[in-house]
Amino acid sequence: MKLVFATNNLNKLKEVQALVPDHIQLLSLVDIGCAEDIPETQPTIEGNAVQKAEYLVKNYGYNCFADDTGLEVEALNGEPGVYSARYAGPLRNSEDNMDKLLKNLKYEHNRNAQFKTVIALHLNGELETFTGICKGEITTEKHGKKGFGYDPIFKAEGYEKTFAEISFEEKNKIGHRGKAIQKLIGFLNI
Ligand code: IMP
Question: Which pTM does this prediction carry?
Fold first, then answer.
């Protein structure tokens, strides 16, 4: 089965490619000649995932899935949440985003946070969504060079190391996107 994953993020592609079984042929946006920015203008993580998947079906006609992820920080009432990518401004710079978050939590003792991924699947005209959550906490400084985005300042529950310090396989096993992908795979295998 051919399925388009609506992302240009090579880290995400690698994470997802490692999890999907061989009978699913994953195509990227480059593979289908989609070079434009797909709109993500909804006020929720789920809304953005659905918007991206619907845009692809409407404009390219492929069965596809899209993901949207947000980092929800308890002491900030769930922020940056749906605005995680643009937290420090329109340039979507991860270093700036992390610096802003660390600054906003500087005097905060409650550092609980969670990553939430919603995957929206458009398959033969039907829409399904799958959610993956990874609970943890925000560190006081950046640690590690692996991964991407907020990984250097997020420690999953029960871990002493950040997502940027653990292996790719370990992050994929316990991480938000991995959990959502496992649900998607379970659905596709029915
Ligand atoms: P989006 O899902 O690509 O829109 O991601 C929203 C924001 O969350 C971006 O700033 C990403 O860098 C960040 N992000 C998404 N997934 C992860 C992850 O697995 N680890 C760390 N940051 C992430």
Answer: 0.94
The protein residue whose alpha carbon is closest to atom 15 in ligand 1 is: 69
In DSSP notation, 118-182 reads: EEEEEETTEEEEEEEEEEEEE-SS---SSSSTTGGGEEETT-SS-TTTS-HHHHHHHSHHHHHHH
- Which of the residues are catalytic? 68
Per residue in 75-113, pLDDT (tens digit) is 999 999 999 999 999 999 999 999 999 999 999 999 999
| Range in 36-40, 98-102, 151-155, 164-168 the model is least confident about | 36-40
Full domain range(s) for residue 149: 2-188
Number of domains in the chain: 1
Q: Ligand 1: which of 71, 135, 154 to mutate, most ligand atoms within 8 Å of CB?
A: 71
CATH of the domain at 124: 3.90.950.10
User: How far is the C-alpha of 68 from the C-alpha of 82, rounded, in Å?
Assistant: 8
72 pocket-lining for ligand 1 (C-beta < 6 Å): no
Cα of 106 from ligand 1 centre, angstroms: 22
SS3 (DSSP) at 26: strand
Which pLDDT tens digit goes with each residue over 47-76? 999 999 999 999 999 999 999 999 999 999
